[in-house]
Write a structure and sequence with these properties.
Organism: Etheostoma spectabile
Number of domains: 2
Number of helices: 4
Oligomer: single chain
Protein name: C-type lectin domain-containing protein
InterPro entries: C-type_lectin-like, C-type_lectin-like/link_sf, CTDL_fold
Domain C-type lectin: 9-116, 121-198
CATH class of the largest domain: Alpha Beta
CATH architecture of the largest domain: Roll
Number of strands: 10
Length: 198
């Protein structure tokens, strides 16, 4: 099944496998063919999967799991923490610099953002949610959202931010998509009671 989504901004192909598997077994089966369990980016994706399930008269495993480590968007472990309590809030939050202080915000807020490439920091004024900002840094600048590992980097980022409120590369979320996609989509009201790989 092919499906274009605006949330992922790309055409994706979904394969449904008929045998009932555990989540781990389904993930292994998908990985054997260079696939992954499905990531949902928006309500359009959720509706597509839900309608597919109804047509197939079955259920599917999705690629969302609990147990994310706290890392910067570039994969570096968080070793520096500037006036911010990490791990207290288990909901999905993203970190911005606001009034020269690290501040936790809803990841869907639209803000300017800072990318880091080869030690250079660039502030982009266009407002995006956290995932859109990350995608922009990676695709347009071939960089990542800024990560901060010491006091001097923190001061440099604040100085380059010129008193703006902007995203940095830290997201705290107890859930992650197994394909490492950046998706802010979470909907607790819909339950996919699932047994197959998609």
């Amino acid at each position: 099944l092919s499906h274009f989504t605006f949330g992922s901004n790309r055409l994706r192909v979904f394969n449904i496998y008929g045998s009932e598997l555990t989540w781990d077994a389904a993930l292994r089966k998908c990985n054997e063919t260079n696939e992954s369990l499905a990531t949902l980016y928006d309500e359009e994706d959720a509706n597509f999967i839900n309608n597919t399930i109804k047509k197939e008269d079955g259920t599917v495993w999705l690629g969302l799991r609990k147990g994310r480590n706290i890392t910067w968007s570039d994969g570096v472990r968080v070793t520096f923490n500037y006036s911010y309590e990490i791990g207290k809030n288990t909901s999905q939050i993203c970190v911005a610099i606001d009034n020269n202080t690290w501040t936790s915000l809803n990841c869907s807020e639209r803000k300017p953002f800072m990318c880091k490439k080869d030690g250079n920091y660039t502030l982009f004024e266009e407002k995006k949610n956290w995932c859109q900002a990350l995608q922009y840094c990676r695709k347009s600048v071939l960089a990542d959202l800024v990560s901060i590992s010491n006091v001097s980097q923190n001061e440099e980022v604040i100085r380059k931010g010129n008193n703006a409120s902007f995203w940095i590369g830290l997201m705290l979320d107890e859930w992650e998509w197994v394909d490492k996609s950046c998706s802010l989509y979470r909907k607790t009201g819909r339950i996919f009671d699932v047994h197959n790989c998609i």
